[in-house]
């Protein structure tokens, strides 16, 4: 159905209690990027929340393929959500009483960064709002608990910045509103070891660094170290690699994307164009209607 016609019951916990997990896979030049990695993360998230929709992984992949084919998209943002329904009449709200179900859609490609932001580099801030503790909400289970990010986004807007990067309660960097973060110090590419989603784009960055012989570290990054670093960039499905040029008003690299960040970004898209981790969309199913695996 047209995405604007899609609806969910407003009484479902998936909506009313944020009792939902999701994933997003990108399609570029007619191919999914790292489809199996996204499906595996989605399945792990659903298992963690004890959600058991009837579809197998192969069926979910077929559904996503069909959505992209029917929407005739060569570049797409493809979302898969798993929501918990309301309990049947007379039953309590315990998760085991409620069925879970999928809601998937494909829309034209979405990017966190605008062309202007890519050209000048992102302007980031570390807001007062802290990331929800991992003991409360597991950040590796992709979720809609965006209260902390929304507060950070409001603060970013108030200070004229683009996006917030949140700290944990030990003053270590976690992640931004919809993206992982990296900093570069003395030629080493560093990203937080905990408190963040294990991003598929982040994994791609670490693979590219290994290929280029750029040293990497996955460890805690204190806010002061992050603010003083040589370069910073963000990574996400919806945008790829997004270099920053300002952090809390401090200007880096003459107010432009740093050289190593820019190199990684260029290599990322060059490799994507060559079919790196690509699964071609089968557009024939749009007309045959055959989506069964
Ligand atoms: N962190 C958060 C909170 C996100 O929402 C996202 C993506 O939406 C990411 C990180 C980046 O993950 P990925 O590279 O798998 O898209």
Poorly predicted spans? none
The overall number of domains is 2
Helix-strand sequence: HEEHHEEHEHEEEEHEHEEEHEH
The CATH topology of the largest domain, please? D-amino Acid Aminotransferase, Chain A, domain 2
Biggest sheet: strands, sense, closure? 9 strands, mixed
Mean pLDDT: 97
Secondary-structure content class: alpha+beta
Radius of gyration: 20 Å
- Beta strand %: 25-35%
Classify the helix fraction into a percent range.
Answer: 25-40%
Shape: globular
User: Using DSSP, what is the number of strands?
Assistant: 14
CATH class of the largest domain: Alpha Beta
- What CATH architecture of the largest domain do you see? Alpha-Beta Barrel
Number of helices: 9
- Alpha carbon gap, first and last residue: 21 Å
Q: Could you give me the name of the CATH homologous superfamily of the largest domain? A: D-amino Acid Aminotransferase, subunit A, domain 2
Bound ligands, named by name, code or SMILES: pyridoxal-5'-phosphate
Polypeptide structure, described:
- The chain is of the alpha+beta class and 293 residues long.
- It folds into two domains: 3-108, 2-Layer Sandwich (D-amino Acid Aminotransferase, Chain A, domain 1), CATH 3.30.470; 115-273, D-amino Acid Aminotransferase, Chain A, domain 2.
- It is 30% helix and 26% strand.
- It contains nine helices and 14 strands.
- The chain has helices at residues 13-16, 35-48, 57-70, 115-120, 147-159, 200-212, 223-227, 259-273, 285-288; strands spanning 20-28, 31-33, 76-84, 100-108, 122-125, 163-167, 173-176, 180-185, 188-191, 216-218, 231-236, 240-247, 250-251, 278-280.
- The strands form two sheets. Strands 5, 6, 7, 8, 9, 10, 11, 12 and 13 form a nine-stranded mixed β-sheet that branches. It has a five-stranded antiparallel β-sheet with strand order 4-3-1-2-14.
- The radius of gyration is 20 Å and the shape is globular.
- 39% of the residues are buried.
- The site of pyridoxal-5'-phosphate (PLP) has 14 residues, from α6 and β11.
């Amino acid at each position: 159905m047209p995405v604007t016609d899609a609806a969910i019951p407003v009484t479902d916990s998936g909506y009313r209690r944020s009792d939902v997990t999701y994933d997003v896979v990108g399609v570029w030049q007619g191919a999914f990027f790292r489809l199996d990695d996204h499906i595996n993360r989605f399945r792990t998230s659903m298992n963690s929340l004890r959600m058991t929709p009837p579809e197998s992984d192969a069926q979910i992949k077929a559904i996503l393929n069909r959505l992209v084919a029917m929407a005739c998209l060569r570049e797409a943002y493809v979302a898969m959500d798993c929501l918990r329904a309301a309990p049947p009449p007379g039953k309590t709200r315990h998760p085991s009483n409620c069925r879970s179900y999928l809601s998937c859609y494909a829309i034209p490609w979405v990017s966190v960064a605008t062309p202007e932001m890519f050209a000048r580099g992102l302007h980031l801030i570390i807001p007062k709002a802290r990331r929800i503790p991992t003991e409360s909400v597991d950040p590796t289970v992709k979720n809609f608990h965006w209260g902390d990010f929304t507060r950070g986004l409001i603060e970013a807007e108030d200070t004229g910045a683009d996006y917030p990067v949140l700290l944990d309660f030990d003053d270590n960097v976690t992640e931004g509103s919809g993206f992982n973060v990296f900093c570069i110090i003395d030629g080493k590419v560093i990203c937080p070891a905990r408190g963040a989603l294990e991003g598929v784009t982040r994994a791609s960055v670490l693979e590219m660094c290994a290929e280029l012989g750029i040293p990497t570290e996955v460890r805690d990054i204190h806010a002061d170290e992050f603010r003083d670093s040589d370069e910073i960039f963000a990574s996400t499905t919806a945008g790829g690699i997004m270099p920053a040029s300002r952090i809390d008003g401090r200007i880096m690299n003459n107010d432009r994307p740093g050289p190593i960040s820019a190199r990684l970004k260029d290599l990322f898209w060059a490799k994507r164009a060559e079919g790196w981790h690509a699964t071609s969309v089968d557009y024939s199913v749009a007309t045959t209607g055959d989506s069964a695996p």
